[in-house]
Amino acid sequence: MLTTVIGSFCLTLIKAHGSHRLYIAYLGEKKHDDPTLVTGSHHDMLSSIIGSKEEAKVSITYSYKHGFSGFAAMLTEDQAEDLAELPEVISITPNQKHELMTTRSWDFLGLKNEPPSELLQRSNYGEDIIIGIIDTGIWPESKSFHDHGYDAIPSRWKGVCQLGEAWGPSNCSRKIIGARYYAAGLDKANFKKNYMSARDNNGHGTHTASTAAGVVVEGVNLHGLGAGVARGGAPRARLAVYKVGWEEGGAGGSYLATAAVLAALDDAIHDGVDILSLSLGVDENSFGALHAVQNGITVVYAGGNRGPRPQVLYNTAPWVITVAASKIDRSFPTAITLGNKQTLVGQSLYYKLKNNTESRFESLVNGGNCSREALNGTSINGKVVLCIELTFGPIGRIFEDVFAGVIQGGASGLIFAFYTTDVLLSTEDCKGIACVFVDNEIGYQVATYIGSERLPTVKIEPASSITGNQVPAPKVAIFSSRGPSIKYPTVLKPDIAAPGVNILAAKEDAYVFNSGTSMAAPHVAGVVALLKALHPHWSHAALKSAIVTTASTKDEYDTPILAEALPRKVADPFDYGGGNINPIGAADPGLIYDIDSKDYNKFFACQIKKYEICNITTLPAYHLNLPSISIPDLRHPINIRRAVTNVGEVDAVYQSSIESPLGVKMTIEPPVLVFNASKKVHAFKICITPLWKVQGGYTFGSLTWYNEHHTARIPIAVRITIQDFYADVA
C-alpha cells in the first residue's frame, strides 16, 4: 500500500465505460522468440472472438511477449467467456485495482558504512547488479541517485530510457539505467496530477528505490531527527524503474492495475534485471513473477500492512520472497510536561515549534476519543487536545480521522493515546502543531491530571533521537500482515522480516520517514543484490534459502524477538518467517535448500482451474524443497523430503537439532550429514507424526543443521486436524 500503514489492500475490479472491462488472458510459455510474432498471435486469437484484427489491436492494451505469453484487452463478459473456451488460453481474469504497499537501518543490520563491513567490501557494494523497482517511478535529481564514479552501463542491459513529461534523456544515467511507465488505458482527465513519464510525483517509488540502492549521502536528517548517512543496501547497484502506480483523482487515491504490473514484469525479463522489488499488493496468480524467477530474476514482494490479524498476507507464492516489517533500534522520545511539573514521555517527529518560539505551557483539554460527537461543545481552539482511542483498528486511519477533527477545531497540539505499539506515524507534517503518540497508560495519567485541575496546562518539547541497546529491537511491527497464507496454506509465509518502521529515505530532493512493508521489501532487495554480487551463480532459491535459514530469532539481548500484536507476544513464523534478516549470516549460510525453478510448474499448474489433472502427491507445496515447512492438515504420519547443498567448507559434518511443534513428534533420517569433495548434496527425510487427536490450531517448531561454523534453521508450522473443516472442536 502507500508505504504508510494508513490503508489496506483493496482489490476492486476496474470497470471501463459501458459493458466492457479489462481482462487478462494468460497463455503460458511464449511460442515464438520474436516478440512481434507473439503479439501478432495475440491479435489473431482475439480477432477470432471480436470480429477483426483491427478491432483486436484497438482492444489490446498490453501484449505480454518477452517472459511469457498473454495480453490485457477490453472485452465484454461474453467475449471473455468465449476467449476462455479457446484451448490455448490457460486463464482469463478480470483486471484488478490494487493499493501501493535509511540512515540507521543498515547499521542495525550489521552493514556499517564507516568502517565498511566485510560484506559490503567483498560484494563491492553490489556493483553492477541491476535492481528493478516496480512502483510509482523515481525522482532522478535526488542526491541518492547520482552516478559519480560509475563505469559504463553493463553490456547485458537491454532496457530503454522511455521519454515523457518532465523526463528527458539526461534523467537516465549510469545509476538509473532504465525507465519505463505504463499508462495504457488511463483516463488522462482523471490523472492530471501525474507526470506522464517515469517521474515520481507520489514519493513512494523514490523512497523504496533509495532504500534498496541509494548511493551514500552524508549528513541526512529530517530537521535534526534520524541524522546520519543515507544509503541503500547495495549503493553501487544499478536501478531500472518501472512506473505502474498513479495518483487518481483529487482525493489522493492510488491507481495500480494488474495489467500494468504484468507488463512491467514482462519488460523486466526482457531488459535483464537481476532483482525485482515490488512494494505492491498484487494478486495475479503470480504467473508473472514465476516467469521472472524462471528467467533467473529474484522477486521480492512486500507482504502487506493489514496486521496483526492472521491470514491477511499477500504475495505468498512459493517462488517469491515475501517480506514482513520489523522495527529497528531507534526511537524519538518526546517530553510532555504537565502543569503540575510531572513529565511523561511519548514519541513524535515534532521538530518545529510553532512560530519558532521556545516551548511554553498551553491549555490542555480532554477530547475523549475526539470523534465529532465527543468534540461537540468542547472548546479546543488554541489548546492541546488529549485523544484516547480504546478501540482496535488501523492506527493510521483512526489517527487521520482524529487529526482532521482536531485541526478543524483550531487546536494547537495533539496527544494521541492508543494501545501499546511501537508504530510512529510520519507526524512531521501536522500543520504546524505538535502530534505526540503515547500509550493508553500515559493517556490515562494525562486524563487524570486534567480531571484534577481547574486550568490544566501542558508543555511539549521537540523530539530527540536515541539509538542502540536502549531501544529493544528488532520487533515485528503491529501493521505487518501475518500468515498463514489463505491462498497457499502449504507454503509458510512470510519468508523473512526486515526493517520497515520509521525508515528515512529519499522523496524528491529531501528525505522523509515512512513505515510499511513497502519499506521492508527494498531492504531485502538490497541484501539480495549484495549476495548476488558475492555469489553470482546462486539461484533464486539459493539466495532465498540463505536469507531464511540464517535469520535472527533473538534480539540484541539474546531474548526471543517480540511481535507487536494484541497483546504483544513472542514472534512465530507467521509473524516473521525464518526471523529478522541477517545479511552477514546470509553471505555464508553453509547449507542451502536449492530448487530447480521448473519444479514450481507442477505446483503452479494445480492452482489454475483449467488444469484438471494433478497428481495429489505432488500438489502440496511442502513437497517442494523450500527452506520452511507448513502442513495445514496433519492427520497421519507424513514423510517430508528435503535436500541441502553444501556451499561452505568442502569437508564438513552437520548435526541436526529438532524443535518439534507442540502435539507433534518429529524425527529425521539421517541425523548427521557428512560432506566432502564428492558429496556436495545430501537428501534427508523428516517424519512428522501427530501425537494429539484434536481439531487444533497451528503450533511451531524448527529443524536446524549446525556445526562449529554454520547454523541453517528452517521454520515449521503444523496444524493437526481430524475433520475436513478447521474449527476448533477439541
TrEMBL record:
Keywords: Hydrolase, Protease, Serine protease, Signal. GO terms for molecular function: serine-type endopeptidase activity. Residues 23-100 form the Inhibitor I9 domain. The active site is at 135 (charge relay system), 204 (charge relay system), 518 (charge relay system). Residues 126-554 form the Peptidase S8/S53 domain. GO terms for biological process: proteolysis. Belongs to the peptidase S8 family. PANTHER family: PROPROTEIN CONVERTASE SUBTILISIN/KEXIN. This is Subtilisin-like protease.
